[in-house]
Amino acid sequence: MSDNPNVLWIMADQLRFDYLSCYGHPHLHTPHIDALAARGVRFTNAYVQSPVCGPSRMSAYTGRYVRSHGSTWNGMPLRVGEPTLGDHLREAGARAVLVGKTHMTADAEGMAWLGIDPGSDIGVRVSECGFEPFERDDGLHPDSPRQRWSAYDDYLVAHGYTSDNPWEDFANSGLDTDGNLLSAWLLKNSRLAANIPEEHSETAYMTNRAMDFMQSAMQGDAPWVCHLSYIKPHWPYIVPAPYHDMYDQSHIIPPVRSDAERDTDHPLMRAYLDARVCKSFSRDHVREHVIPAYMGLIKQLDDNLGRLFAWMDAKGLTENTIIAVTSDHGDYMGDHWMGDKDFYHQMAVKVPLVIADPRPQADGTRGTASDALVEMIDLAPTFMHALGCRAKPHVIEGRDLTPLLHGQDGFSRNYVISEHDYHWSEMARSLNVPQEDARTVMIFDGRWKYVRCEGFRPVLFDLATDPSELTDLGASTDPAHDAVRIRMDAALLSWSTRHHSRITATPAVLAGQKTAAESGILIGFWDEGEYKDATGKAFDSLQPHGRP
Amino acid sequence: MSDNPNVLWIMADQLRFDYLSCYGHPHLHTPHIDALAARGVRFTNAYVQSPVCGPSRMSAYTGRYVRSHGSTWNGMPLRVGEPTLGDHLREAGARAVLVGKTHMTADAEGMAWLGIDPGSDIGVRVSECGFEPFERDDGLHPDSPRQRWSAYDDYLVAHGYTSDNPWEDFANSGLDTDGNLLSAWLLKNSRLAANIPEEHSETAYMTNRAMDFMQSAMQGDAPWVCHLSYIKPHWPYIVPAPYHDMYDQSHIIPPVRSDAERDTDHPLMRAYLDARVCKSFSRDHVREHVIPAYMGLIKQLDDNLGRLFAWMDAKGLTENTIIAVTSDHGDYMGDHWMGDKDFYHQMAVKVPLVIADPRPQADGTRGTASDALVEMIDLAPTFMHALGCRAKPHVIEGRDLTPLLHGQDGFSRNYVISEHDYHWSEMARSLNVPQEDARTVMIFDGRWKYVRCEGFRPVLFDLATDPSELTDLGASTDPAHDAVRIRMDAALLSWSTRHHSRITATPAVLAGQKTAAESGILIGFWDEGEYKDATGKAFDSLQPHGRP
C-alpha cells in the first residue's frame, strides 16, 4: 500500500444528516454508508459554509470560506485566480477528477480579461473550479436545448429514451395511468415512479461513470481525488421503481417545529415563513408526498454506493482509497415550517460526513464517531495531506482532519461559520433589502448558534437546552443571553477581520521579508554606531558596491 | 473641451497633510499646490486605507480595501485577477499610465499557474497593477546590482554620475568637507545637500518624465490617467541644494505629544514606542536634523509641480486635465513619540488631497474645502466617472467624489477605514504575536477614532475634545465611551462582513438570476393550479420542447 492513497470524495446533494441509519434514522436503512462508517469515522458536527449548493461547493472545492472565494450565490462565477483543491493537487503531481455536479459557473469575463482561452487546458480547469472534468453534470436541465445536452441526455437517447428533453421526460417525470407524463417539478407527482428503469437513472449512471474513471485511472500512476458528485436526493423529488414505493406515511419522522415559531417577530424569519417554498412544505400533504420520495432517493443512493464499493473491493481499490461521503447542505422538509434550505437550522446547515481511511494509522478510530466541530472546508486540506501536497495555510482556511482520523491530537476549532447571500430571494424582495445588505452569517460553538442578520436583530439558539432549535433567544432580555450575543459578535468580528484575501503571502514571500537592516533599507538609524549596536555589523558592510 | 478630460494623478510618498501651506503649515510655503487648491477642492478629511506604502497604494490602484485586495504588506504580490483602475479604464478605451512608484510586486506564482507570460501585454499590466509603465521606479535601491538598475540609474550614469549605485551615492548621499560620501540612510546626514544638482534629482527627473509622457500622449486620441508618483519626501531624507538649507530649527512646528502618552498600558502601543524608529524620532536632535530636510523635499516637490503646471499651461493641457495631488500616507516625525508611519494618528493616516477639475460643473467649488469623510479608494471611481467608464459597484468599494467636486448632493460616508498588517514588525516579534493575528483596523466617523487591535484592547480617541489624540480612551470606564466602543465594533462588523470578494456579481450576472419560475426551476409548487396562481402562466408553457 502506498503512503499516498487515492481519495474517492462522494457528495450527495441536499442530503440531510439525519436521513441515514448510521445517523439515527429509524426507518431509512442505509447499510452501505453505515458499513463505511463502521470502518471509518462518522462526524456528528460537520457544517457547510453556506446552506445552498453553489457557495457551499465553492468552499468545499477551495477549502475557503464564502467570504473569501466570493462566489456567494448559485451561478456567481468563481473568480479566475481563486486557488482550488485541484490546483494544489496538480502541484504535487496528483489529479483532481470530477464525476458529476459542481454548480461551478466559469468566470468568462475574468478569463477574457486575462487572455485565457476557455478551451485551453488552463481554461478548462479554471472553468471547472480546478477539476479535470471526466464528467460534468449539474443535474438540472429544465429547458435544455439539444446543443447544451449533458452526456447523460445523450446516454438516455442512445438507450432509446427519445425526447427533446430526456432528462426531464424520463428521469424526472412519472406517468399517469394513461401513460401521460407528469412532471416531478410539481410536488404532487413525487410519489410516482420515475419514467425510467433504475439502472438508467441519474444515480446509477453517475455511479457507473465513477467506475469508468477508476478503471481508466488504474492504467496510470498519478494519485487522484475523484469527486463523485450526485445530484440526488436534490429536487425534482422523484425516484425510479422500486424505490418510489418503499416508504409511506408510517416511515416519516415527525416534523421538528412548534406553533410558537410561526409567531416570530423577526422580520427576516417572518419573510422566510411567508416565502412560497416554506408555506408549501408546511403543509402535511406536501411532506407526506415528498418525504417518501426523498427517502427512496437516499435508499437508491445507498444501494448504488453498495454496488460501487463492491466493485472497488473486486478491483482491489478499497485498500488504497480514502472514501468520504458527505453532502453540500440539507433540506428542511417542513421542519421549522420551512422548505428547501437557505437558513441555518441543523437539518439545513449540518451534513453527514463519513470518512474511511484505509491506512493503518486509522485502525484505532474505525467505527467511532467524532463530535469535533468540523467544516466542509476541512476536506480539501485533509485530502491534500493524504496525497502529499504541501500545506498552504495562507490560502486554505480549512483544517486538516487527519489527526481526527488517526486518533491523534492536533485538531481544534472553537466555532464553525456559515454564510448566506439572499439578495436573489423572495425575502429580499418582500423586505426591500438592498443587494449589498441581504446577508446573514452563522457562528456555532457547539452549544450556541448565533445568526447575525445585517439590518435585523440576531437569531440565537441554545442547543444545550433546546436541541431542536425551537426557541429563538435573539431578542431575549436575559443578561446571560446578552453576554452570549456579545461574545458571538466579538468572535465574528475577529473572524471577519482575518486576512481572508492575503493569498499571495506564501511562506517564500514571508521568508523574503527581511528586516530593514538585512535588506539595506534602514529606518531611523542615527549614525554608524547605532547601526552597529543594533545589527552587530559595520555600516559599510552594507555597501557591497564600494565607493566611487 | 471634451466631456471626458484626462487626469494627472500626482502622489507624493510619506507627505503629511499638514506640511503644506494650504493645509496650514506656518513656514513651509507651497504656492503651487496652494494655487491648485485655489482652483479646486481641498479635502480636509482624506484617509488612506493603510498607513504604509504598499497596501495603501494597492487600495488606491484598485479602489478596494486592503481586506479585499489582500496585499496587506509591502512586497506582498497583488494577486492575478484583482481588478485595477487600469483594467476598468482600458475597457472604456482610456489609458492608465505610470510615471514613478507603485510599490507593486508581481504575482509571479499566480501568473505561472494561469499560464500568463510576464512579458506579454497582459503579463506586464498584471505585473504593474494595471498600469502601462511609461516609467516605473519605486525609488529605493539600497543594493542594486547593475542588471536591476532603474532608468533613473542609467540616466545618472549617462549624465556623468558614475558609480555602482548612482541612486545611493549621488541622489541619496551627501559629502563631508573632504568630499567623502555620507549616506542619507543615516539620519545624522540629513542636513547635508544631496550629492546631485537639483535638476538631476529624483523629483526633477520624474517631473520631466511626466512631461515626456504628456507630450507623447498629445499624438494620440485615447484619454488617459497619468499617475505621476514621486518617491519623495519619503526617506532617505536628503535634498539637493538650495533646499537643504532653506529651513532650520525655527521652522519646525512643535511635536504633537504628551508625557502621559509614554506611560501607555496598551501592550501594542508600548511595543510601538519601544521600536527603534519610534525611539529614534522621539529624540529632539533627530527631529531637528530630519524635519528641515523633509520640509526641503516638500518645497522642492512644490517647485517642480510649479514647473510642471506651467508647462501644462503652455501646452494647453491644463484646461482639459483634472489634476489631483495626494500622498500614500504621512510621517510621524516624532509626534506621539513615534517615527515613520504604521499607525493611525492623523499625521500618519490622514493625507492631503487636492483635486482641481477644469470642467465648468466644478466652477462653484473652486477654492473651497470639503470636510467630507473621503478615502483614497474614492479616487479610482472618480477618475473612472470622469473618463466615461461604467460604474462597477460590485468591484469598486470607493465612492465617486464627482458630486463633491461639482457641488452636488449624492456623496455620503459615515466612516472611513484603514488597516494594518504588522506581522513583519518589531512589535509582532516583541509581543510574540502570530502572523495571522498581527492586525489592526481603524474606523473613524469624523469624531471618534477607534482602533481594533486583535488580541488587545482597542484604542479610542475623541477628536472633538482631544483633536491632538493625546488621550487614549480605549480602556475608559466611562459608560459613554463604552457605548462608543460598542457602536464602533458593530460598524466594523457590518463592514467586515460585507461581500468584499463578490467581484464576479456583475450587473449582467445579477440580472441573469431569474426567479425560479422564469428559469423553469420550480421549487415548492404543488400542482399546475398553484403554478398558474403564482406566475400567471400555464404550467405546460414551460415545456417548449413538447411531449414525446
Automatic annotation (TrEMBL), chains A, B:
Residues 5-388 form the Sulfatase N-terminal domain. Pfam families: Sulfatase. It comes from the Bacteria. This is Arylsulfatase A-like enzyme. Keywords: Hydrolase, Metal-binding. GO terms for cellular component: cytoplasm. The keyword Nucleotide-binding does not apply. The lineage of its organism: Bacteria, Pseudomonadati, Pseudomonadota, Alphaproteobacteria, Rhodobacterales. GO terms for molecular function: metal ion binding; sulfuric ester hydrolase activity. InterPro entries: Alkaline_phosphatase_core_sf, Sulfatase_N. The keyword Hydrolase applies.
